[in-house]
Amino acid sequence: MARITASVYTSHVPAIGAAIDMKKTGEDYWKPVFKGYEFSKEWLKNEKPDVIFLVFNDHATAFSLDFIPTFAIGTAAEYTPADEGWGPRPVPKVIGHPQLAAHIAQSVIQDDFDLTIVNKMDVDHGLTVPLSLMCGEPQAWPCPVIPFAVNVVQYPVPSGRRCYMLGQAIGRAIRSYDEDLNVQIWGTGGMSHQLQGPRAGLINREWDNAFLDQLIADPDALSKKPHIDYVREAGSEGIELVMWLIARGAMSDAAGGPKPKVAHRFYHVPASNTAVGHLILENA
Ligand code: DHB
Ligand code: FE
């Protein structure tokens, strides 16, 4: 059967993608950001996942305001990096895993979570920047990726509780797939940031670190945090953090198994207008 071996959490700041693409990673401003991912790149090479289930949000790129799926699973064979206004990022195309994605859709929908099925989608910085941070600049991404898009842009957005329970359902779905696959689940976006209005540039280090502590130790309690707390404390775009609860809900302890081990934790300010947070949890 397929196994979920680890979960990875990371911010997806578009300026990080631009820094990589424009060869600026060695500049003083960016050095500390990329240093926080040196361990992670080595770790990923050693872990050799067969599939990455990547929870991210589309930023009105693939989905316009014409139609707004709350939860959308990518079932395509491949996905092209999106043009977000200055040309597509020069990164490899993303190879999907249609069989596992279809199995997860079947299982999760029968488990009472309504998903939108997406057979064609360009993927924006929400998906490609986490891959770049974790993989560097390879010719091809190391394994197939199942993109899972969550609406955290247009209200109403899903609650942390809904996200955590959906993660549990995704965990059940993956663990019931009849092939011995090493699957990782990634939760992306965050940490505190507000990109517009009088509070633009808001950073709340204390809140971010408390979020990381609770994500590790007591995600069930964390999932009960109302969405207004994210917006008030972590800024309007801090709401992206609910996506981390999907990845966390898929870990073994959320299904009655042992607690995961913290393999790596990193926090840094600033990157563009945001705080960068990053965590790797390994299942026992
Ligand atoms: C920015 C955009 C994002 O989607 C995000 O999550 C963080 C930062 C930005 O434009 O700086
Ligand atoms: Fe974002």
CATH topology term: Protocatechuate 4,5-dioxygenase, Chain B
Mean pLDDT: 98
- The gross shape turns out to be globular
Which regions have little confidence, pLDDT < 50, spanning 5+ residues?
Answer: none
How many strand units? 11
Straight-line N-to-C gap: 16 Å
Kindly estimate the percentage of residues that lie in beta strands according to DSSP. 15-25%
CA gyration radius, whole angstroms: 17 Å
What's the architecture in CATH terms? 3-Layer(aba) Sandwich
Strand order, sheet with most strands: 6-3-8-2-9-1-11-10
Describe the structure.
Keywords: Dioxygenase, Oxidoreductase. It is a single chain. This protein has 284 residues and is of the alpha/beta class. The protein has helices at 14-21, 31-35, 38-47, 98-110, 125-135, 160-175, 205-217, 219-222, 227-234, 242-249, and strands at 3-10, 51-56, 71-74, 78-81, 94-95, 116-118, 122-123, 145-150, 182-188, 261-271, 274-282. It has one domain (3-282): Protocatechuate 4,5-dioxygenase, Chain B (3-Layer(aba) Sandwich), CATH 3.40.830.10. Strands 6-3-8-2-9-1-11-10 form an 8-stranded mixed beta sheet, with helices on both faces. Strand 10 and strand 11 (274-282) form a beta hairpin. Helix 6 runs parallel beside helix 10 (242-249). The longest helix has 16 residues, at 160-175. It is globular and about 45 Å long. The chain binds 3,4-dihydroxybenzoic acid (DHB) and fe (iii) ion. 3,4-dihydroxybenzoic acid (DHB) is lined by residues 12-15, 59, 189, 193, 195, 237, 240, 272-274.
